[in-house]
Design goal:
The structure is a single chain. By secondary structure, the chain is mainly alpha-helical. It is 58% helix and 0% strand. The protein is elongated, with a radius of gyration of 31 Å.
């Protein structure tokens, strides 16, 4: 019985493996460059004010809503001053929690600034 020598396949050189990834890497770089062009290219959403139209809308709604006097007024959605629909927002699809947090934070900071001004004037 004769046995023929087996020829084991030779592994590809490392240089060939590196070149197989090149088209994928170039494609990814192209996608990132394409996205960066549209992200950072001359889109003038805020006409020089650096705000997106959605940010302007949220800023206006946050300025218009007011804190309720008590919990009863808060839970009365038809009359609540925190309800954006009661303050001129025809549609409001962003959710109330960020709006409420922003408004309460603004009120707290405003009160803290007024209190610090009064303390500074007394000195």
């Amino acid at each position: 019985m004769t046995t023929e020598p087996t020829i084991s396949p030779q592994p590809e050189p490392a240089a060939n493996k590196r070149w197989t990834w090149l088209p994928i890497v170039l494609l990814l770089i192209g996608i990132i460059a394409f996205g960066a062009y549209f992200r950072f290219g001359g889109l003038d959403w805020g006409e020089g004010n650096l705000l997106h139209p959605d940010e302007y809308f949220l800023m206006g709604v946050t300025s218009n809503v007011q804190l309720p006097k008590d919990l009863g007024e808060y839970f009365d959605s038809q009359n609540s001053p925190l309800n954006p629909y009661n303050k001129g927002a025809g549609t409001f699809v962003y959710g109330n929690l960020p709006l409420f947090i922003t408004r309460y934070t603004a009120e707290a900071l405003d009160a803290a600034c007024k209190m610090s001004e009064q303390l500074c004037l007394k000195k």
